[in-house]
Amino acid sequence: MKDKCGLENAVTHTLLTMTLVYAGGMSAADAANVNEVTGNSASGAIIKENQTLSDTSLFGWKYDDGTAATGGAVTLTNADIFIGSSLTGLKGVYGGYSAGGASTGNSVSVSGYKHNTPFGNSIIYGGYAGSGAADGNKITFSNSKSSGSLYGGWGKVGYVKNSVVTITDSTISSNVCGGHTNVGTASNNEVQITNSEISYVVVGGEIFTESANANGAATNNKVTLINSSANIAYGGRVGGTWGIATGDTSANGIGDATGNTLTIESLKSGSTINLEQIFGGVVTGQGNANSNKVVLGKTGAGAVTMDKVNTLYGGGSQNGGGVRGGDANGNEIAIRSNVTLGTGTGSSNGTRIYGGYAYAGAANQNKITIDNGAVVNAYFMYGGNSSGGAADGISQANQNQVIISGTVTVGNSISGGFASGKSGTAGSVAQGNKIEVTVGGKVTGPIRGGISGYGSANENTVNVAGTVTGALVGGWSNNLGSGVGTANSNTVTVSGAAGNNVMGGYSLKGGADNNKLEITGSVTGYTYGGYAGGSRTTDNASRNTVSIGNGGTVGDNIIGGVSAKGNADNNTVQIQGSGNLGGSVYGGQTTAAAGSANDNTVELGTGRTVGGVVYGGYAQGNGSASGSASSNKVTVSGTVNSTATQYTGTVFGGYALTGVADNNEVTISGGTIASQVIGGHSSTGNFSSGSASSNTVKIINGSTVSSDIYGGYTGMGNANSNSILIEGSSIGGDIYGGNTGVGIANNNSITIRGAVNLSNRTIYGGSSSSGNAKTGNTLRFENTGGNIKAIKNIDVLGVSALANNGNALTITNGAIGDLADTTVKLVASDSGLQVGQQITLVQANSGVITNTTSLDQATLKKNSNAFISYDFEEVAGLNDAIAVIVTGKEADTANARALAESRAAGVALLNQSSDLLIDQGFGAVKFNGEGVVKDTYGFATTGGSSIRYNTGSFVKANGFSLIAGLAQKTTVDNGVWHWGAFFENGHSNYSTHNDGVDGAVRGDGDATYNGGGILARFDSASGMYGEASMRAGSIKNKFGGFAYNGGTGSYEDRSTYYGAYLGLGQQRQLSKNTSLDIYGKYFYTHQQGSDFEVLGEQVTTAAVKSSRMQLGGRLTKQVTAEVSYYGGVAWEYEFDGAADMAVAGADLAAPSLKGSSGIVEMGIRLKPSKTGKITLDLGAQGHFGKRRGFSGGLQINYSF
To answer: Which helix (H) or strand (E) holds 928?
Structure first.
């Protein structure tokens, strides 16, 4: 036959040479052609039983022309054939054969065999089509043997589809193919093998020829092996055998291998056939290998060992025959829990695993899944690999996945996507890949979410909930040769265990930015958010984040971003939870000669312990240029321990070996520091260009620092304008606002608050070996004092007037003249001072205070704490001390007035409710009662307002009120009575605004009331009317307060209120549809006083009483029976409204609502339906004078 079978030609194997003796035989010399037996005369059917046929081919249908062979069937039961190798012609068994037409629905069934070498020199075809489709052909092969290959369907030119080969309990010493075509598409073919052995290759569907590039596709073919063995298995393929020396590499194809599936549930026990290569779908030549799938093992079944498998592809596309390959996208490998796979982990003999491989195209969206219980040993494992053989040299390996729940050991690495790329060609990328090691999963070897050989590795993810002993990298940009690329926006999450180093992104030549590490498990090595290891100054590591959460541990250094030659800026390290961390912590680190480590953030939470150093930013430099470690921020609430290593146990906001360390901020809040705290450190070597200025250090909330504190420290340069705050903490060393070896240290500030033991400590405003270290330096003791060893280089010393002179600031071991030319200012006062009391502000050992030490007299007048304002006079004639006498005291600070005005705001809200009741509620009662037939009816009204009350300063309030109730109408001889009861509710958000010598103060709060009352109204026949009401309830006032010295002046209290109202008026009818209402009204509101504490001070409030009178008139125009308009004006006078208050025993000049206001109103009343029970009243009021703003109401009345 001219067209030899592709698979048989693809693999060389030895044919048996033997002499058969049988009845009626002939010699080889006598027979040139094989005998042919057809079923053409028997409706296409041949049945042979219990016999051996020599030199004979069998055909269900056989047509040598273009006639289609349809429905032919050959059935062999304990029968077989053997054909001599020297014979010519069609050798084998054909369910149907058409030399020039289609072959459809034919079958071959083989059961049993006659001798041990059946089907020698023979091929079994379900159906053969010389031209046209080979569709729906079938081979069933059971309990038999074959020395030849099996093809479910064979097409010379055309489609081969829907063919099925089923093999059970058999041995095939050659190859098996579901469907083969030389030119066309092989689709939906299937091979099912159970309890059998296949010596060579198994293919679901294939397309290729012996020499030329074939055109077509291999689509949706399927192979299933159960308890069976084969040497090589393909779900589908286009082109010749993939990458082995014995393959027919000259046979290539042009087309796609798509949607093919290969399932190997189990291997035959004791088989000598080694399964070595597995392919879901591949292309050798030109085309895509997409959406193919390999499934190994079966969940819940017995163990399967595949330890001879050296090659495993979900899908692959490689060059061949002078044409380039294509893409390998969307392929999948699933390794079930009962499988042990792989020949080893070495580079020479280890297994290669690819979810998708593309030599000259993209490898995207491939997936490898390894179930819990599976064991895999490999040299490497790539979800997707794009090798860079494309014409443009660009590789793409994107959005691939590797999910590991089993046990995997690799000698090289595991990667979600590998984009090789090409030197000198930009654009290659490994992006969006994902590797996940689930709980129970174990990996020995390194993991890289994405790898790019000559390009970028961005947005990849590694998630480890299991155990990994190798290094973890989210994105790895190798950039060999002239390649340049980034490792950006990668994420690594470790909730399990990582036995080596962890990096979010690594770039050898390019940036490593916006990477993210999240650690809640254990990491043995170091953790870097981003690492830029290139040689260019533009290779930065910025905006990376490392988060160590609860349960997370790290054995070595933690660094947000590292750059070898560029900058490491805007990185963040956040450490929460509890437990020890082995190394040092860096927000950003650069080893560049002039690189920057700026704007980085480090947060070390309560319960955490660091065994090294904490750096917000670290700029190493190289001694020949100036770098920068500035504007970094460090917050420590945990512990920084000390060892014998230099600087260990120290916290630096910014550290610049050569250069600038400015504007850094360090906050130790409840933390413990074993050594020093330094805001900014510049150690410039032989340069004078260093700077450690404008840094901030805060030691607060009971922190402990065991050694010195520096706002700024520089070897050569200036240390100016640094600030230090120490509040309620323990200090084990001296305190320096700024320190320089060569330079100036001016304008530094140090503030001490709360209980701080400084008895053996010296405070330096500035320190310099060869420059000015005093000018502009300030030291403030706010509401604190106590013993201190010495105070040096302070230009302005702020002290406090303390109630207990035993707590006065006392210098015990200062040098003569330490406070010479120092100005002392009174900066704070206790609340419990009494007029006439003498207060020691500062005292010192002899000679510290000199005649050039002066007390700033301006600070002795109106000196205020949170609420109390004092006047003092200096005591003259004292040696080694400065003291004052209290001459005046008043509670008139802006803070105190803010408290009082919050009470006035509550009364204003109650007055708003009263206004709503009178202006809308009584109108609702009268208007609603006019049209009712029954005596009892309901009413409701709601309103809102935005009012400014001038109280001395002012209060702004936005309020809402609601009134609802029942009323009863009673008609008498001379008029009508309306009686009722109501419920009221309201809420107000307000702000208080005050200005004083202690500055502008704004306070914010809200008030809510609930109450009820009764009302009555009488309308006489003459137009005169009278109104009255009484009400009571409870009001809750929550004052959010104001900021003061780090605290909040706030309170919350509840008090009762009650009120009454009386009104008289005359309604006159001016015309048929117009009336005028002239009235006088009196309001009374009373809110009970209360006591509470604010900022440690006792506040006593008196009852607030409001007594108001209104005189005015309202004109009403009745448009229709259902609609009327009204407008009016009124004058109001508040007689009281004062919010009396005492703070710390001192009375406050109370803010008051007293004064005149004008009111303008307008509105509309309507009844939507003549017969309906609902009436509406929409009204608005404008206010000017004492109270200014507007209010409005919507009255909703329902009669029943």
So the answer is: helix 922-930
Q: Among all chains, which residue has been given the structure tokens 């002066």?
A: 854
- Predicted local confidence at residue 620, as pLDDT: 87
Helix (H) or strand (E) holding 902: helix 894-916
Q: CB neighbours of 2 closer than 8 A, spacing ≥ 6?
A: none
Is residue 773's pLDDT more than 80?
Answer: yes
For residue 278, the one-letter residue type is I
- For 211-228, the pLDDT digits (tens) are 667 789 999 999 999 999
- Measure the CA–CA gap between 40 and 536, rounded to whole angstroms: 80
Distance in angstroms (rounded) separating the CA atoms of residues 14 and 905? 105
Residues 6+ apart with CB under 8 A from 995: 894, 953, 1001
Using the structure block, give the residue that is written with the tokens 């056939």. Answer: 273
* Local structure of 694: helix, strand or coil: coil
Instruction: Give the CA distances from residue 832 to residues 174, 426, 801, 802, in Å, rounded to whole numbers and listed in that order.
Output: 105, 75, 10, 9
CA distance 1128 to 451: 80
Identify the CA nearest to 1179 among candidates 859, 998, 918, 861.
918
Task: Give Cβ neighbours of residue 656 (< 8 Å, ≥ 6 apart).
Answer: 597, 619, 621, 626, 627, 628, 629, 630, 680, 681, 682, 683, 684, 690
Q: Are 914 and 1169 in contact (CB under 8 A)?
A: no
**DSSP annotation of 300:** T
Distance between CA atoms of residues 385 and 412, nearest Å: 14
Rounded distance between C-alpha atoms, residue 1 and residue 715, angstroms: 92
- Name the burial class of residue 424, with classes exposed (0-12), middle (13-18) and buried (19+) by CB atoms within 10 angstroms of its CB: exposed
How far apart are alpha carbons 229 and 271 in whole angstroms?
7
- Are 146 and 172 in contact by the 8 Å Cβ rule? The answer is yes
Asked if residue 791 lies in contact with residue 750, where contact means CB atoms within 8 angstroms, the answer is no
Closest by Cα among 479, 506, 471, 501 to 490: 506
Q: Which of 51-60, 446-455, 639-648, 890-899 has the lowest mean pLDDT?
A: 890-899
C-alpha triplet 525, 526, 532: angle, nearest 5°: 135
| Mean pLDDT for the stretch of residues 1022-1039 | 92
Task: Return the C-alpha torsion angle 47, 48, 50, 51, nearest 10.
Answer: 170
- What is the residue type of 145? K
Distance of alpha carbon 470 from alpha carbon 525, whole angstroms = 10
Parallel, antiparallel, or unpaired for β 1051-1069 and 1047-1048?
A: unpaired
pLDDT score for 642: 73
Per-residue pLDDT of 594-618, as tens digits, reads 899 999 999 999 999 998 999 999 9
Residue 236, beta-bridge partner list:
205, 281
Backbone angles phi, psi at 859, to 5 degrees: -80, -5
Cβ contact 103:127 at 8 Å: yes
**How many C-beta neighbours within 10 Å does residue 564 have?**
20
CB 384 within 8 A of CB 396: no
- The string of pLDDT tens digits covering residues 309-345 is 999 999 999 887 667 779 999 999 999 999 999 999 9
Give me Rg for the CA atoms of the chain: 47
CB atoms within 10 A of CB 86: 11
Phi and psi dihedrals of 909, rounded to 5? Answer: -65, -40
Closest CA to 1086 of 1032, 1036, 1153: 1032
Q: Contact at 8 Å (CB) between 594 and 655?
A: no
Rounded Cα distance between 597 and 630, Å, is: 7
CB proximity list for 422: less than 8 A, separation 6 or greater: 388, 393, 394, 395, 428, 454
Report d(CA 1200, CA 72) in Å as an integer.
92
For the chain, how many residues are written? 1200
Tokens for 268, please give them.
Answer: 């035959």
Tell me how far apart the alpha carbons of residues 1114 and 347 are, in angstroms, rounded to a whole number: 100
Taking residue 378's Cβ as centre, other Cβ atoms within 10 Å add up to 25
